[in-house]
């Protein structure tokens, strides 16, 4: 009865995870809707923007990684998923996180495909990456953080995108009349984004939208091999990379040590790679370690 035993453990783990890191159905729907609204509102307009759906696989990966409370990219997914990270002391409104990521468009120049110097825009470019058709996110409250000394009772948000974006040498989308260059079999234009004509061209996870089906539980282990040992190599300069705190929260941060207000300290991280990627982003390049 070994298989039954395995299943039992998996279910138990799932329950714990559900308490710890899963977002509600409402939050998931809102993440998908918000992505599609943002994807439809890029400037210049996008000709080939695909509609985004919820990705259950990516969610399981994000959830497991979030619960590890590490301020660094998940090395196990760097060639599989795009990844954006966000953390803040106190509770997090995921909707605001997405807004902050989208706001990076102010620092992005479409024509030369670059960020302004010393600014991040990789969260934005991943968010509006035309070929990324699904996203899965998780949030977790961490008592302490590896890689962010002094952060206690901090919430981390992890979003994994599939297929991954921020591919070196590519723009996030093709500029042009909305839906004028939709991918094959994705020509159903709705609200200025390309949608699949038939349900059967959707990724298999589409039917699992919003809830975890038993069949996904066994997939959990495959996706994320033990990564704990790979995170020791956090580079000394990580703190400086978190200096690019979002403008709206900078003032709150000054009072952090005394008042400890919500959202007192915010750090944000985009891309699919490691800290090398973060450096590239800071250097004003849209790049990643994607091959
Ligand atoms: C989260 O932020 C959004 C946008 O700022 C706002 O409309 C919403 O009410 C907030 N939700 C909560 C629970 O505060
Ligand atoms: C973190 O939260 C727990 C539970 O609310 C609380 O007991 C603890 O004092 C908090 N720690 C810090 C450093 O704020
Ligand atoms: C588009 O749909 C047709 C008919 O279902 C199928 O044969 C073809 O492989 C699809 N193309 C792509 C790129 O999925
Ligand atoms: C979900 O993960 C499983 C196991 O890794 C994989 O076989 C399946 O293709 C994935 N589905 C999607 C839509 O990525
Ligand atoms: C810090 O807190 C003090 C008193 O609570 C307030 O007067 C001041 O404006 C705050 N400073 C910032 C930058 O928020």
From TrEMBL:
<feature type="region of interest" description="Disordered">
    <location>
        <begin position="200"/>
        <end position="258"/>
    </location>
</feature>
<dbReference type="InterPro" id="IPR035940">
    <property type="entry name" value="CAP_sf"/>
</dbReference>
<feature type="domain" description="SCP">
    <location>
        <begin position="26"/>
        <end position="169"/>
    </location>
</feature>
<dbReference type="GO" id="GO:0005576">
    <property type="term" value="C:extracellular region"/>
</dbReference>
<dbReference type="Pfam" id="PF00188">
    <property type="entry name" value="CAP"/>
</dbReference>
<feature type="compositionally biased region" description="Basic and acidic residues">
    <location>
        <begin position="200"/>
        <end position="244"/>
    </location>
</feature>
<dbReference type="InterPro" id="IPR014044">
    <property type="entry name" value="CAP_dom"/>
</dbReference>
<feature type="signal peptide">
    <location>
        <begin position="1"/>
        <end position="21"/>
    </location>
</feature>
<dbReference type="InterPro" id="IPR018244">
    <property type="entry name" value="Allrgn_V5/Tpx1_CS"/>
</dbReference>
<feature type="compositionally biased region" description="Polar residues">
    <location>
        <begin position="248"/>
        <end position="258"/>
    </location>
</feature>
<dbReference type="InterPro" id="IPR001283">
    <property type="entry name" value="CRISP-related"/>
</dbReference>
<protein>
    <recommendedName>
        <fullName>SCP domain-containing protein</fullName>
    </recommendedName>
</protein>
<keyword id="KW-0732">Signal</keyword>
């Amino acid at each position: 009865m070994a298989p039954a035993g395995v299943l039992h453990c998996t279910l138990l783990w799932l329950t714990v995870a559900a308490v710890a890191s899963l977002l509600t159905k409402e939050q998931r729907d809102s993440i998908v809707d918000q992505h599609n609204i943002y994807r439809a509102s890029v400037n210049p307009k996008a000709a080939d923007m695909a509609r985004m759906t919820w990705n259950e696989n990516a969610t399981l990966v994000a959830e497991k990684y979030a619960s590890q409370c590490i301020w660094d990219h998940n090395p196990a997914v760097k060639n599989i998923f795009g990844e954006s990270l966000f953390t803040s002391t106190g509770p997090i409104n995921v909707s605001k996180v997405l807004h902050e990521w989208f706001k990076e468009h102010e620092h992005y120049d479409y024509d030369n495909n670059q960020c302004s110097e010393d600014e991040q825009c990789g969260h934005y470019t991943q968010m509006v990456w035309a070929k990324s058709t699904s996203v899965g996110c998780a949030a977790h409250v961490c008592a302490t953080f590896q890689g962010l000394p002094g952060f206690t009772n901090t919430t981390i948000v992890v979003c994994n995108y599939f297929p991954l974006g921020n591919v070196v040498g590519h723009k996030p989308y093709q500029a042009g009349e909305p839906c004028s260059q939709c991918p094959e079999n994705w020509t159903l234009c709705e609200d200025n984004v390309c949608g699949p004509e038939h349900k059967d061209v959707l990724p298999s996870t589409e039917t699992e939208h919003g809830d975890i089906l038993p069949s996904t539980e066994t997939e959990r282990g495959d996706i994320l091999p033990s990564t704990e040992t790979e995170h020791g190599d956090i580079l000394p300069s990580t703190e400086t990379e978190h200096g690019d705190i979002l403008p709206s929260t900078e003032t709150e941060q000054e009072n952090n040590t005394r008042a400890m207000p919500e959202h007192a300290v915010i750090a944000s991280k985009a891309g699919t790679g490691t800290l090398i990627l973060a450096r590239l982003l800071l250097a004003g390049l849209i790049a990643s370690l994607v091959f």
